[in-house]
Amino acid sequence: MIDEKGILFVLSGPSGVGKGTVRKELFEQDTDLRYSISMTTRNIRPGETDGVDYFYKTKEEFETLIDQNQLLEYAQYVNNYYGTPREYVEKTLAEGHDVFLEIEVQGALQVKENFPEGVFIFLFPPSLEELKNRIVSRGTETEDLVINRLKAARDEIEMMDAYDYVVVNDRVDHAVEKVQSIIQSEHCKRERIEKQYKRILEDETK
């Protein structure tokens, strides 16, 4: 029996591409994945649970973790920190569970720097026109903000080279199927299986 470690899968892509929608649909179908719980310094809200919705920390605690390189990525929004705790991810992977992280492009590039053994999936819009339509249809963005988001999306699409896979989000169900195929194929990679067998053989020859 191969005692396999889990794999960290990172889904990323430009704002408006539908990362959250794909992730929700994926989790409705695939219960074996563990969602990466983020850490934050914002106050806990009614109905939220520490260790389920977020890991809640003080600003001082969070900054100590930054200094100790205990975050795979972090960012600051409106005076609060948000980040991905290394300890939770590594512990969950060691228990044999795959961990799934859905994140913005800048955060994904930070994760790649700190955890290069992860598998990085870029969710791609069918076209920039379609991306614009999705951003506009939210109804929450001003004309200037839509233009800025599209400029940022163009810049982020140029960072696609840093990723292992690209999935076009033309239809959510198709995109989910492709992500599931990537997860399966990564577990069947010769290099991963080989590492496990080498460990078994070493144990048996001791």
Automatic annotation (TrEMBL):
Which residue ranges traverse the bilayer?
none
Gene3D superfamilies for the chain: Guanylate Kinase phosphate binding domain (3.30.63.10), P-loop containing nucleotide triphosphate hydrolases (3.40.50.300)
Q: What is its main location?
A: cytoplasm
Q: What is its EC number?
A: 2.7.4.8
Q: Where does ATP bind?
A: 13-20
What are its GO cellular component terms? cytosol
For the Guanylate kinase-like domain, which residue ranges apply? 6-184
Keywords from the named record: ATP-binding, Cytoplasm, Kinase, Nucleotide-binding, Transferase
InterPro entries on file: GK/Ca_channel_bsu, Guanylate_kin-like_dom, Guanylate_kinase, Guanylate_kinase_CS, P-loop_NTPase
CDD domains registered for this protein in UniProt: GMPK
Does the keyword section mention Cytoplasm? yes
Q: Which top EC class is named for this enzyme in its record? A: transferase
Q: Which SMART domains match?
A: GuKc (SM00072)
Q: Where in the cell is it found?
A: Cytoplasm
**Single GO MF descriptor:** ATP binding
User: Catalyzes what?
Assistant: GMP + ATP = GDP + ADP
Top-level taxon: Bacteria
Q: What's the stated role of this polypeptide?
A: Essential for recycling GMP and indirectly, cGMP.
Family stated for the protein in its record? Belongs to the guanylate kinase family.
User: Which named protein is this?
Assistant: Guanylate kinase
Organism this protein belongs to: Virgibacillus oceani
Task: Quote the gene name from the UniProt entry.
Answer: gmk
